[in-house]
Each structure stands twice: as structure tokens, then as C-alpha cells.
């Protein structure tokens, strides 16, 4: 029995860390990730992983609305308009 409780505690420690990390970038947010991970142990994590992952912020400089990275893939700028070091714009 002790092993089962130990594994359960380990899972919830991982689940809390997972929620903090994934809640920041997933479109469903902290509450959505937390509910899935805690109500559906293990399965919830797979659901979160399969969800339309990151929040696509888009790029306000060139209108690339599918940009998910910090620096835009088309113009290389971040939110402050700073171009990524060594970025070569596509023709
Ligand atoms: Zn851009």
C-alpha cells in the first residue's frame, strides 16, 4: 500500500510542476491544464499534450498570425520589434 501512496504523491508533485509549466503556454490556461491533469491522472497529460499546443500570438509587425515562437518566423522580430540575432529574412 505504501508504494501506491508514494506513487500517488509523486504523480501529484509532477502534476503541479507540469501545470505551472504548461499552463503558461497552453491555450486552455492554468485552470484548464490543472483540471485535466488532476481529474484524469496520466490521461489528462496526454490530452494536454494533444491540444492545439501553444497560444499563437501572431506577429504584429508583418501580420503572420501563425507565429508561436518568441521571434516571428517570417520577419524575425519579437514583440518589442527587436530582430533575432543572425536572422536572415526570407525572400
Ligand atoms: Zn513577423
Descriptive overview:
With 91 residues, the protein is an all-alpha fold. The chain has two domains: 2-50, no CATH class; 56-85. The chain is 47% helix and 0% strand. It has three helices and no strands. The protein has helices spanning 2-25, 29-39, 43-50. Helix 1 runs antiparallel to helix 2. The radius of gyration is 18 Å and the shape is elongated. Residues 59, 61-62, 64, 72, 74-75, 77 line the site of zinc ion.
Kindly state the mean pLDDT as a whole number?
A: 84
Radius of gyration: 18 Å
Q: What gap, in angstroms, lies between the N and C termini?
A: 63 Å
Number of helices: 3
Number of separate structural domains = 2
Low-confidence stretches: none
What bound compounds does this protein have?
zinc ion
Q: What helical percentage do the residues reach?
A: 40-55%
Content-based structural category: mainly alpha
Let me know the largest β-sheet.
none
Structural shape: elongated
Query: What fraction strand?
Result: under 5%
- How do the helices and strands follow one another from N- to C-terminus? HHH
Tally of extended strands? 0
Write a brief caption for the model.
The protein has 91 residues and is mainly alpha-helical.
Descriptors for this entry?
47% helix, 2 domains, 91 residues, mainly alpha, binds zinc ion, 3 helices, elongated
Amino acid at each position: 500500500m505504501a508504494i501506491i501512496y508514494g506513487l500517488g504523491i509523486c504523480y501529484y508533485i509532477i502534476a503541479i510542476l507540469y501545470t505551472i509549466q504548461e499552463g503558461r503556454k497552453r491555450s486552455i490556461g492554468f485552470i484548464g491544464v490543472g483540471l485535466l491533469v488532476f481529474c484524469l491522472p496520466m490521461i489528462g497529460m496526454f490530452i494536454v499534450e494533444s491540444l492545439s499546443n501553444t497560444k499563437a500570438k501572431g506577429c504584429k509587425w508583418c501580420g503572420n498570425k501563425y507565429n508561436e515562437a518568441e521571434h516571428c518566423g517570417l520577419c524575425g522580430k519579437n514583440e518589442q520589434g527587436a530582430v533575432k540575432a543572425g536572422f536572415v529574412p526570407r525572400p
